[in-house]
Every structure is written in C-alpha cells, then in structure tokens.
Amino acid sequence: MGKIIAISNQKGGVGKTTTAINLSSGLAQMNKKVLLVDFDSQGNASQGLLAITKQGQPTIYSVLLEDYPIEDAIVHKEAPNIDILPSSISLAGADLEMDKMEAGKEELLKRQLMKVRDQYDYIIIDCPPSLGLLNTNALTAADSVLIPVQCEYYALEGVTQLLLTIRLVQQLYNPHLKIEGILLTMFDIRTKLSVEVSQDVRQNFGKQVYQNSIPRNVKLSEAPSRGLSIFEYDITCNGAKAYAGLTQEFLKRNGGN
Known about the structure:
By secondary structure, the protein is α/β, with parallel strands linked by helices.
C-alpha cells in the first residue's frame, strides 16, 4: 500500500510545488512508482510538468465533485516518469461547494485516493497555501506531512500555525497523521538571515528537520518553464544535487523503501 505524503504550508512561495515536483521525480529515478496530486487551484505543478494539454481535460475537481473516475483523470508522464492528477482554476470554488455538504466533506480526497493507493509506492499531494477545506482534505488523506520552510523572518510562526492545524486534524479526522519532516528551502549560506533561521528551526524541531536543505538556485526556477523536473533540466546544478540528497534522506527515513 502506497504512502501518502502531503506537502503543506499555509504560506505561499515557500517551495511546496518545487518540492512536490522534484521529490516525486527523485523518487521515480529510484524506481519508485509515484502519483503527484496537484491540489492547488493555481495548478502550478500541472503547468510545470505540462500535465494540462487540452481544454475541458478532467482534473482533481472533476474527480472530487463531478464523480469522474480517478483512473481516467490521471496523466502519465515520461519525463519525469511519474503520474499526475492535475488541477485547474475550477478547484478555486471547491471549498465553498464542499462546505455545503452535510457529512463526509473532509474525506472526499481520501476516498478517491484509496481507489488507486495500491498502484503506487508514494502519493505526493501538493497542497494549497491556505488552511481551508482543501488543506483539511489533504491532511485527512495523508499518512504524513512534509513541511517546507523558507529561510526568512516569521518562518517559525508559519510552522506553528500549521502544527496547530495538524493537531486539530489528528483529533477530528486522522489520528495516525505524522510529521514526515521539515525542509529548509531557499537557503543561502552567504546570508546571516538564512543561517539564523536554519539554526532556529533546527533548535526548535531537532531531528524532524532534514539534514539536506534546498538552496536558492536559478535552475530550479527555470525548469518548470520547460515542463521538466530539475533532474531532466540540469542534473548537474546545485538544485538537482540538493533534491537528490533529499530523496536519499527521505527514503532512508522510510526504511529505504
């Protein structure tokens, strides 16, 4: 049975989508079968991997709220070699539509992913930058949460807010939800701020913080414009080396499986 990991932080611009794409690709390079679920109405993961190819294409919205078969909405990519459940702007109104439901609205995503879970080693959910019903659905469906933290002021404040949400979801919907790890992103060793934030996060969260951090890297920003992960775009750059290291550390934490 595949493990489901939500990549979540209610703050925008912290590297959730970059991490979702490149961790998924890194796992695929290690011969793992991966499904990337784009659960953000901005659809950046879908756009960054050219998963939306035609108007009217079924998306995660179609699956959740229009009873479209999840197997038929999944897009199979070769570079990187992963499957993607794409998103679109139609997901923006899903919170309001879910809110009208009387029961089970927090488990819509979980019920759908259970239908395909056995087909994958890992299912990675790219969460929206909010703490609404979409995020609750992702946390209810997930086995664990990977939290990207940008090396900037107020980083710990954002993590604290998310941890409160995680505890609430544990109490109400998913008692087995765990912290997969905390990932420092946009780290620049040349700046005092990055070093201080890194030290603060590691001091507060200890072994939950990955040893590997993700540097500021132009290639990481360029890769989505080519529809590629960093490994296909420039495997020699520092960004690719960082995500390769993260992938290895992630697998080691999961028993090498």
